[in-house]
Design a protein that fits this description.
179 residues; flat
Length: 179
């Protein structure tokens, strides 16, 4: 063993010096430069103003207790007004439901899920709209269908939609198969 050390003493000395330098670099840096602490403001440092404002919001009465009746309105005046507003809401919902009425376009043969998602973006939601299409309308629709161009004419969408819009399920099934 001594012979190996005598033969390679220069290499061992370089390794020992390198190990000491690495140890000094790792352990000397941690103790030589203490970390500098930075001030970070806290929410509570803003003072009592925001805290008092927040507490006032917490302690405030609910909005329902703040509402006061209109001057000159009797006890039933507020009730009648609430009923009128409720009735108006019901009428608006019924109108919206009638406007938003759409048919199940998946019943048309050749109209798959991608076209079912695409047609409402083009404003087509009912059988009656498809049944009323002319050749010019079909050409215009084809230009908007991209990879599905030609499908409305090929799959006879207009004829299928006419039968479905009229409620002629028997005629539809005899011509195009089961719904």
């Amino acid at each position: 063993m001594l012979e190996i050390i005598e033969a390679n003493w220069l290499v061992l000395a370089v390794v020992l010096v390198a190990a000491l330098l690495v140890a000094w670099w790792l352990f000397g840096r941690a103790t030589s430069a203490p970390r500098k602490r930075e001030y970070r403001p806290d929410v509570l440092d803003e003072g009592v103003g925001p805290a008092q404002r927040n507490q006032a919001l917490i302690d405030a009465p609910p909005a329902a207790q703040i509402i006061t009746p209109l001057p000159g309105a009797g006890v039933l005046g507020g009730v009648a007004e609430a009923v009128a507003v409720g009735a108006q809401d019901v009428v608006e919902e019924a109108e919206a439901a009638e406007i938003d009425r759409s048919d199940d376009l998946s019943r048309i043969k050749g109209l798959g899920p991608k076209l079912q998602a695409l047609l409402p973006t083009l404003g087509i939601t009912t059988f009656a709209q498809i049944a009323a299409m002319t050749e010019a309308d079909l050409v215009e629709l084809d230009s908007k269908l991209g990879a599905f161009a030609g499908r409305p004419a090929k799959d006879n969408w207009v004829e299928q939609a006419r039968l479905l819009a009229d409620g002629d399920v028997g005629g539809f099934e005899s011509r195009f198969g089961k719904v």
